[in-house]
Automatic annotation (TrEMBL):
Pfam families for this protein: adh_short (PF00106)
InterPro entries per the UniProt record, alphabetical: NAD(P)-bd_dom_sf (IPR036291), SDR_fam (IPR002347)
Keyword tags: Oxidoreductase
Protein name: SDR family oxidoreductase
Molecular functions (GO terms): oxidoreductase activity
Organism whose genome encodes this protein: Agromyces fucosus
Listed SUPFAM superfamilies: NAD(P)-binding Rossmann-fold domains
Similarity remark: Belongs to the short-chain dehydrogenases/reductases (SDR) family.
Length: 251
């Protein structure tokens, strides 16, 4: 990791899962809005692409950090590298996740369950924990943690037991952070998104013409807004879905 410190302090953000989908759109929107951003994810190439313009030049306020969010020491090193470069950590966008298998609970294998749990819950807890520890040293300003919960945290799709269960766990994680963070000026938002257009979505809904979708830039814009809120404001939960998609009443 390039750990050169930025000369001008900026409000700084770590985005996990920043190489694709919502994470990529969010990292790029944050950079465009003037934030300093560490783009974290498993593969360097997509992260480099997300952090660079059409000419291939990396944004001056971007740090690229390949990381496995299920590795506690690697996540701690990620936060340390971010703070070394940017001085503090204002916001964590806790976005890394996997869709899990299409299966009901009777079909779900232990290996598939363990793999989904490792990224969606353990990875989210490790990233939140490392961010929390850093933010707790930044009192009274603390920081903000934004957890990508998915509308599956509220209502499942059929045959999505592994994903749905892990996203319900994110609801508990978010509430616990919001409660335990009060003493340190740390707030937490559970952001539940439905049918943002990404490469993953077609696999979930069976194609772009099956259900209504919305531009992923809408979600990125919401996250930029949340990241820019003053410390005195907390948004514990926010749901954003494509208009008309099957969410309320689905099942």
């Amino acid at each position: 990791m390039n750990a050169e410190r930025a000369e001008t302090p900026l409000r700084s953000v770590i985005v996990t899962g920043a190489g694709t989908g919502i994470g990529r759109a969010t990292a790029q929107a944050l950079l465009a809005a003037g934030f300093a951003v560490t783009l974290a994810g498993r593969r360097r190439r997509p992260l480099e692409d997300a952090a660079s313009d059409d000419s291939g030049a990396r944004h001056p306020n971007a740090l690229v950090a390949p990381v496995d969010v299920t590795d506690a020491s690697a996540v701690d090193a990620l936060v340390a590298a971010h703070v070394l470069r940017f001085g503090r950590l204002d916001v964590l966008v806790n976005n890394a996740g996997v869709p899990g298998p299409a299966a009901d609970v009777g079909e779900l294998t232990l290996d598939d369950w363990s793999a989904t749990l490792a990224v969606n819950v353990t990875g989210a807890v490790l990233a939140a924990g490392a961010a929390f520890r850093q933010m707790a040293t930044q009192r009274p300003m603390g920081g903000r943690i934004l957890n990508n919960g998915s509308i599956a945290a509220q209502s499942p799709r059929p045959r999505s037991v592994a994903y749905t269960t892990t996203k319900h766990a994110i609801a508990g994680l978010s509430k616990s952070i919001e409660l335990d963070g009060r003493a340190y000026g740390i707030t937490c938002t559970q952001l539940d998104v439905g049918n943002a257009r990404t490469g993953l979505l077609d696999d979930v809904i069976g194609g772009p013409d099956v259900e209504p979708t919305m531009d992923v830039a809408v979600v990125a814009g919401l996250i930029v807004h949340l990241a820019g809120l003053p410390a005195e404001a907390s948004v514990p939960q926010l749901t954003a879905t494509a208009a008309g998609m099957p969410f309320i009443g689905r099942g």
